[in-house]
Amino acid sequence: AAVIMALLMSGCIAAIQETEPGAAQPTVEELLADALKYYNAGNYEEAILLYETVIEIEPRNFDATIGLGRSFRGAKRNPQAVEALKAAYELNASANVAYELGCAYIANGQYTDAESFSSGLWNGGKGDNKAGTVLLLSLAAQEKIEEVIELLQNESFTPFLNPGKGNDFLYMGGYDGSGRCSGYGVGIYPGGYIYAGRYKDGVRCGQGTWYSCTQHQQGTTYFTGEWADDAPNGYGEYHIVYTTLDGLSATRSGNYTGGYENGEMTVSFEDHVAPYVSNMGIRQLTGDEYRSEGESYVQYYYAICKTHKGQCNGDWVIGEHQVNWQWGIEPWGRG
């Protein structure tokens, strides 16, 4: 009754108004249809009121319960979203509802709850990819980088990364007083990327880790470092973990500007350490050339290994067609 009174006082729902005695009240189906219209229009608070009205009438109505959880998420009311989606999962323990509940846990900062919940459903690869994706996001949120890479390199796992339409991204985290992404959060971005780190004024800003969930031609890549203006800006380390070399990795560390290598950089691999310089992603050449034995094709050195005094033949070279490429963090530069 209290919810219905709130609806009447809000004046936002034409379907529930004082009527002549004996007039028919809206049916549950009509209330659900109106609630969905409000939700799709982004009027989440109005949708919440209608879904709560249906639940007063039918406490175990799944459509109303899942709709309520989604509306709370849309309204940036993360704690209430968790409770509503837990109730929805009790009514329908499907993979889709489990995914939404897991994302709500992460959005509310309940990373260990999300990991425990999804780990059981993923069951070491026997579960579905949506459960695996929640596990992936929860591990990323907790900065468990090695476990994230291990999961990304699991051949039976295909991440379910659907951020939305166009340039939208799916965000799970806190908000400031203006409703903008703020503090620590996790985001899924178009192209198959995950960010776990700090946000400010609605964009990535501060320390954060960026994972590419689509396999690089040689392995899995991730970047950890400073962000500003929604891109890597400042010191960072870009890693590639090779799938064909028993987990060996290479790291390019140094300054990044707008996602591009910019300034003094260092590439390291096993016991190789080679400094070089990039100018907004364009690697500056040393002046030395390299030709493979019996080949006429010329490649150009951009770095000289300090460890082996330049004796690493052909390890730090680029081809003529690559001389003006802008290298950096994908998707800003070439990885």
By CATH reckoning, the class of the domain at 1-92 would read Mainly Alpha
Largest sheet: 10 strands, antiparallel
In helices, the fraction of residues equals 25-40%
Question: Looking at this structure, what is the CATH superfamily of the domain at 1-92?
Answer: Tetratricopeptide repeat domain
What does the secondary structure layout of this molecule look like, with pairings?
Elements: H1 2-10, H2 28-40, H3 44-57, H4 62-74, H5 78-91, H6 95-107, H7 111-122, H8 129-141, H9 145-152, E1 170-175, E2 181-189, E3 193-200, E4 203-212, E5 219-228, E6 231-242, E7 249-257, E8 260-269, E9 272-279, E10 282-283, E11 289-290, E12 299-301, E13 317-319
What descriptive keywords fit this protein?
ten-stranded antiparallel β-sheet; alpha+beta; 335 residues; 33% helix; three-stranded antiparallel β-sheet; disordered N terminus; Serine Threonine Protein Phosphatase 5, Tetratricopeptide repeat; 9 helices
